[in-house]
């Protein structure tokens, strides 16, 4: 496939010719580089003797974060391992590291330590609190607790609640991939510093702004209700739960007509009479099932969805499931015209010990 882009010819996958080294563990780092590998980057996963720890979780767990990569086993504590790393750095565009700051520094995985091999190498440090933020343990759930996410999640009368998936790790992986590509595009080498804490606080954007500028502290509402929009939450129906998200008056007009509700025509009026609005809406939604309401409201352009389990969601969207060797996985969320990723299985440990050299551009 050949085409002409604004900066010159484009050939093959979007990231063809880009080589990225990964020293990553578990989720955030490996997720970042897997997304880049899906876009055609050559990703070399550098693993310690015995393999990266997520290989011990399960084969499917490892596959979900490491498809389309190569594996090279190096002992970065040894002279031989560091020398081999230097060879790889000399012929790579970026290195993404997902470890404690002290380990990153001790193993020489920073730009300052590696620039002698390649002054255009982009070094991304993905840590809990920043490359200079210390070694306090920083796992997904810990960051959810530390940044206010757990405190604002759940029913008002219940204990704080954690989301059912690794929201911090996944979000930070996305941010790290963005920072890595931005620095490559700049044409300069350098250090990129991305932390779990900073990414999560950034994602609390309007919540943080409301507190910083207006002194408004986040409140928890029943059924996960939105703090501004009414009605925008989960509702119990005759069978199952429905997520309804009415953000403006046109949505409300269409919904109210279908549900047989009168009044509350403006956003301000609905916010001022929250409890009354919710009582009326709940009563009407109880007359049909969640799937029934979804089928009625979707054609009207109203944001609504029945609450599904993950198996139900996957069964409803079979197009997102791809095959990578023996594994069924969820495809890349990034779709680019004319490019269809090839999904290869995760590498065996040290499967690509002899990596051929390529020259960085």
UniProtKB/TrEMBL annotation:
Transmembrane segments: none
Keywords on record: Transferase
UniProt superkingdom: Bacteria
Keyword Chloroplast: no
Region (Disordered): 341-361
Keyword check for Metal-binding: no
A molecular function (GO) term: CoA-transferase activity
UniProt feature, compositional bias: Basic and acidic residues: 341-354
One Pfam family hit: CoA_transf_3
Family annotation (PANTHER family): SUCCINATE--HYDROXYMETHYLGLUTARATE COA-TRANSFERASE
Record's protein name: CoA transferase
Organism classification: Bacteria, Bacillati, Actinomycetota, Actinomycetes, Mycobacteriales
